[in-house]
Amino acid sequence: MTISASPQSAIPPEDLAALAEELDISLPPTDLWSDEPPLESDFHRDQIDLLIRLLKRYWADRTDFYVTGNLTIYYSEDKIITRNFRGPDFFVVLDTELKERKSWVVWAEDGKYPNVIVEILSKSTAAVDKGAKKELYQNTFRTPEYFWLDPNTLELSGFRLIGGTYQPIEPTDGKLWSEQLGLYLGIAHQRLRFFTPDGALILSAEEAEEQERQRAERLAAKLWELGIDPSQV
Q1: What distance in Å separates the CA atoms of residue 221 and residue 215, rounded to the nearest whole number?
Q2: Distance in angstroms (rounded) separating the CA atoms of residues 228 and 233
Q3: pTM of the predicted model, to two decimals?
Q4: Cys-Cys crosslink for 196: which of 49, 75, 81, 200, Cβ 3.0 to 4.6 Å?
Q5: How many CA atoms are closer than 13 Å to the CA of 67, on its beta-carbon side?
Q6: Structure-model confidence comparison of residues 85 and 143, the more confident one
Q7: Could you give the C-alpha distances from 53 to 57, 67, 225, in angstroms and in order?
Q8: Residues 173 and 38 sit within 8 Å (Cβ to Cβ)
Q9: Which range has the worst mean pLDDT, 34-43, 84-93, 141-150?
Q10: Which residue has the higher pLDDT, 185 or 211?
Q11: β-pairing, 116-120 with 90-94?
Q12: In angstroms, rounded to a whole number, what is the distance separating the alpha carbons of residues 169 and 42?
C-alpha cells in the first residue's frame, strides 16, 4: 500500500512519514531529478527563461513562491515509472518556500500543485497541450489558471478554473488578467510578457538599464541646451 498526494492534501512531510511508519506502509520517493526532454526551439528556451527572470525580478522582495520552467512535476508513483507526462513549460506555485529544487514532487510539497501554468505550443505538442494536458490540469492538478501561447501567431489563450471547469479568460485591451499573479499577460516585443495592473510593461533588468541610460542621455542633452555642463551638476 502507498500514500499518494491529492490536490486537497496538505500533510507535512514529517507527519506523512510518521503516519506511514505507524501504518507500516511505504511512501514514494521524494528526492527525484527532473526528467524532461530538450526544448523544441530557441523560442521556447528564450521565452521560458524570460518569464522566469521577469517574475523573479518583479517579486524580488517575496519568498513565498516558486517559479520555474521545463521541470518535471511528480504527482503519482505511476509518473515515476512510466515517464508518460512532460512537465509544463512554465509554472508558478504560490504560498511555498522559495528555494532551488530538482523537480516538483507533489507529495513532498504539502500536496501543492501549480497555481499558474503556461505551455508554449509546438507542432508536436499542440494537440496534447490543448487536450490531454488541459484535462489533466483541470481535473487532477486543479490549477486555477492555464495559458498557452502559439509561437507562430503569438496568439495567447487563457483559462480560469470556475466550478471545476476551465472557462476562457476574456481579454482586456489585448491582455489576459491573471488573478493568481495579480498581473496581466500579453504580447510585447514578439514575446509573452507580464504587465502591471495598470497596464505597464514589466521590464527585464537589461531593459530597465537601457531605459535609465536613455533617460540620462535626454537629461544631459537638455542641460547642454540650457548651457549647463551635465558633469558639473
Answers
A1: 10
A2: 8
A3: 0.79
A4: 200
A5: 20
A6: 143
A7: 6, 9, 39
A8: no
A9: 34-43
A10: 185
A11: antiparallel
A12: 28
**pLDDT tens readout for residues 107-119:** 999 999 999 999 9
- Under 8 Å between Cβ of 113 and 142: yes
pLDDT value for 33: 44
Q: Which stretches of 94-159 are DSSP H helices?
A: 126-130, 132-136
CA 87/CA 152 separation, integer angstroms: 22
Q: Which helix (H) or strand (E) holds 79?
A: helix 77-82
Rounded to an integer, what distance in angstroms lies between the CA atom of residue 149 and that of residue 90? 11
pLDDT band at 148 (very low <50, low <70, confident <90, very high): very high
C-alpha cell at 24: 507500516
Q: In the structure grid, which three cell numbers stand for residue 185, read together?
A: 499577460
- In the chain the beta strands, taken as DSSP E runs, fall at 65-68, 73-74, 90-94, 104-105, 116-120, 145-150, 155-162, 165-168, 176-178, 183-188, 191-195
In the sheet that holds 191-195, the strands lie side by side as 176-178, 183-188, 191-195
pLDDT higher than 60, residue 140: yes
CB proximity list for 150: less than 8 A, separation 6 or greater: 121, 126, 156
Grid cell listed for 61: 522582495
